[in-house]
């Protein structure tokens, strides 16, 4: 029986979400999606904030937004949802300085939640997150070994180096020598774990853009040629189309899963999906289900019928240029990956 791994876009637990959570149960942030999340065998999110009550707002360069959540509720909330891995290579991990990034990593480590994409140095930021999904069975299956590398092209000032903490930052350019060196190093480390499934989680591109540039398509294809099984993209705050390249899905942008952001009336950044990947015990992706979601009251919810219909139509439109066609199963879109 295949295992199911969920992938989400931005999970931003700071500001108004943080305020609301002080007066409601920790699991309330997951709204009506909680049981669907808990039914998964694994869950990967882009954590778009730090988990700390310490630090000062970044002021070395202009930063209009700073995201920080209290780990006393945020970590238990991640645990209740069954989050296995947090991608940390994004443009908010240094919003409250080095101390808050360290608090975030310490909090995730203490909770047993794996992470990738940020660290005390670039060496640490390149380390993959490795998790075993599922449990041993009588048939001899020992669970699915999943390795995840995480990169961003956002916010150069947040980049880690040999002596300073920050993100695994790259240029999305297949001809850039430094990018190729960093990506190769991270993938080589991931392969040392001999994973059944290798994922690249990429926080790439500008906000409120509905389609990826050609450079992103070339970069995603290069990663798959190098052995990556799935591209988990995010950053635009809106869901972009999905491409299947050599049997591997490229989620160019998973949109926003939960936050307090202002909603664009046309682009509807409050609407997206839970991306639910079915994987055989041998590590072969066979199906990707897209369950429509929407953000309401600083919590994620199963999308209303009207919102779900809107999201399905936008996803079909945005995926059509890639030759991607979906089936329908209830509210969900279904993409078959079987050969």
Automatic annotation (TrEMBL):
Residues 4-261 form the Capsule synthesis protein CapA domain. PANTHER family: POLYGLUTAMINE SYNTHESIS ACCESSORY PROTEIN RV0574C-RELATED. Coiled coil: none annotated. It comes from the Archaea. Belongs to the CapA family. This is Poly-gamma-glutamate synthesis protein (Capsule biosynthesis protein). Pfam families: PGA_cap. Gene3D superfamilies: 3.60.21.10.
